[in-house]
Design goal:
The chain is mostly beta strands. The protein is built from two helices and twelve strands, in the order H-E-E-E-E-E-E-E-E-H-E-E-E-E.
């Protein structure tokens, strides 16, 4: 175990001669999973897409067309545990900006009310080293989300 943990963190010496730990990410900075609350189980096979806003406006404007503003970052399909695969590269510092995670819930639940669910959130400059876990709790006629850990 100590060999593995040595690969996850490195030790460096500061000018004072003291060792300090510098951690690197072991997973992408943005992750998600989907839970089917109507069945009480993970939702396997849900297509997921991650995008970042790069439009002409600094942020998408509510009620305005956003043609060409969203830029694809990555996609995946949830596994048996409801977790998506890697939606972006593992990086120590994530770009600040407005992100959108979209879920193809219509394919997963064709008789449901929501053909897709999109969650838009912002990562600020001061948060660029944090992890953002954005889960979707889904049923055919409702959904909710939260910022997880």
């Amino acid at each position: 175990m100590s060999i593995i943990s040595g690969h996850l963190t490195t030790t460096s010496e500061s000018s004072s001669g003291k060792a300090s730990q510098i951690s690197t990410r072991t997973r992408p900075p943005i992750t998600t999973h989907v839970l089917d609350v109507s069945r009480g189980s993970p939702a396997a096979g849900v297509e997921v897409c991650l995008e970042i806003w790069k439009g002409t406006q600094p942020r998408p404007l509510f009620g305005e067309p956003d043609v060409g503003g969203w830029v694809f970052q990555g996609s995946s399909t949830t596994d048996a545990d409801g977790r998506s695969g890697q939606l972006m590269n593992i990086v120590d510092v994530v770009n600040p900006g407005i992100y959108r995670i979209s879920f193809n819930t219509g394919k997963y639940c064709p008789s449901g009310f929501f053909p897709c669910v999109s969650i838009v959130f912002e990562i600020k400059e001061s948060q660029n080293r944090e992890h953002f876990h954005v889960p979707l709790l889904f049923s055919p006629f409702s959904f909710t989300t939260y910022r997880g850990s």
